């Protein structure tokens, strides 16, 4: 099976043809595509739902991606969502609200289950390459509602989220505004990560999350 996948991946014309056939029978829907620029040649999409309520938005999905039951929603203008080549996702939801947001997912990143990515108020939400995200993970660059001090001044402005390369995020992790997770980091199950920068090659866990181990890395396989 792996040899067959490599053969298809190395023959781009065959990849494009098979992906187009797969999409044709995949019951994919794009609403508002007149004002949405979409690029998804060589993408294997099944039951994908794209909703565009805005203008000059752009969706770019690179070849080799395998997306099932994925939903992408644009509510605003001049937004950009990019998923690089060979990503895998099942039940991924990307929600973009307001103007001039960017959501990017690096190549060969895998979502193993349901995930929710919300990017609002002109922020950037970036996830690096070769990352592994377990099921029921949530990313939010903002709160979607205002919190005010006693003088009526807003105190909860949105802020960008950055996740580096080769990061492993466990089940039911929540990553909130202003978070920066560096390369080779492991985030433990059920952690809430918010508003801090974490060094690479570390393990972070807890509510709120904190570093409990340094100088570590991880591998997809159980090595002997």
Can you offer a commentary on this structure?
With 224 residues, the protein is mostly beta strands. It has a single domain (2-143, 158-214), classed as 3 Solenoid (UDP N-Acetylglucosamine Acyltransferase, domain 1), CATH 2.160.10.10. Helix content is 10%, strand content 40%. The protein has two helices and 25 strands. The strands form four sheets. An eight-stranded parallel β-sheet has the order 1-4-7-10-13-16-19-22, with no helix packed on it. It has an eight-stranded parallel β-sheet with strand order 2-5-8-11-14-17-20-23, with no helix packed on it. A hairpin with a 2-residue loop joins β24 (202-206) and β25. The chain is flat, with a radius of gyration of 18 Å. 33% of the residues are buried. The model has no long low-confidence stretch (mean pLDDT 92).
How would you summarize the topology of this molecule?
Elements: H1 2-10, H2 12-24, E1 29-31, E2 36-39, E3 44-46, E4 49-53, E5 57-61, E6 66-68, E7 71-75, E8 80-83, E9 88-90, E10 92-97, E11 102-105, E12 110-111, E13 115-120, E14 124-127, E15 132-133, E16 137-140, E17 161-163, E18 168-169, E19 174-175, E20 180-181, E21 186-187, E22 192-193, E23 197-198, E24 202-206, E25 209-214
Parallel strand pairs: 1-4, 2-5, 3-6, 4-7, 5-8, 6-9, 7-10, 8-11, 10-13, 11-14, 12-15, 13-16, 14-17, 15-18, 16-19, 17-20, 18-21, 19-22, 20-23, 21-24
Antiparallel strand pairs: 24-25
């Amino acid at each position: 099976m792996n040899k067959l996948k490599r053969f298809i991946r190395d023959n781009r014309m065959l990849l494009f043809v098979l992906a187009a056939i797969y999409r044709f029978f995949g019951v994919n829907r794009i609403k508002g595509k007149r004002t949405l620029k979409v690029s998804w040649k060589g993408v294997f999409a099944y039951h994908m739902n794209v909703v565009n309520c805005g203008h000059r938005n752009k969706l770019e999905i690179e070849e080799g991606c395998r997306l099932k039951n994925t939903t992408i929603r644009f509510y605003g203008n001049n937004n950009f969502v990019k998923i690089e080549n060979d990503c895998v996702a099942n039940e991924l939801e990307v929600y973009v609200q307001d103007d001039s947001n960017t959501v990017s997912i690096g190549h060969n990143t895998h979502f193993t289950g349901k995930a929710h990515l919300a990017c609002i108020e002109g922020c950037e939400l970036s996830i690096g390459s070769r990352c592994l995200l377990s099921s029921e993970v949530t990313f939010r660059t903002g709160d979607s509602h205002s919190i005010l001090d006693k003088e009526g001044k807003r105190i909860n402005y949105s802020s960008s989220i950055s996740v580096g390369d080769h990061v492993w995020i466990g089940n039911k992790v929540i990553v909130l505004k202003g978070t920066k997770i560096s390369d080779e980091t492991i985030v433990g199950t059920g952690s809430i990560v918010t508003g801090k920068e974490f060094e690479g090659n570390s393990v972070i866990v807890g509510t709120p999350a904190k570093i409990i181990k340094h100088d570590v890395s991880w591998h997809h396989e159980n090595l002997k």
